[in-house]
Amino acid sequence: MGQKIDGNLPRTCAIYLVSSDKQREMQMSGSGVSYLGSSTPTTTCAALQFDTQLASPKAAVVAQLKQHDILTVDFAQPGNQQVVVALWQGAEAGSIVDPHLIQLRSCMSQGEMYEARVLHVGGGQVRVRVYHI
Length: 133
Known about the structure:
The protein is α+β, with helices and mostly antiparallel strands. It has one domain: Alpha-Beta Plaits. It contains 3 helices and 6 strands. The protein has a 6-stranded antiparallel beta sheet with strand order 1-6-5-2-3-4. It is globular. The N and C termini lie far apart (57 Å).
């Protein structure tokens, strides 16, 4: 159990203020926080483009991927517009989880179509650029 400080209960947490540069450095260093990139939100579906790392990558599919491959971006299940996945030859490579996801889902729900170009594959992780087609 922690020490009492000034007669009060033990302190159990700390709050840190981190500059955006330091936060980006922490995100990129693999500290358990995913890198969100510097993509700027857009207002039109046609202009929506962002870089992200696939979440929950599927090892068997990732093993087949190489830089510049083109993945199809689609809803995980017909009628379920919550989960968006990247598909390689019909097989799920991983899901799209990014600050742009709300806008991406909205645009896809309106019939807009997207692809994801593989930027980097390494250590079981896949970095992609999602863009409108």
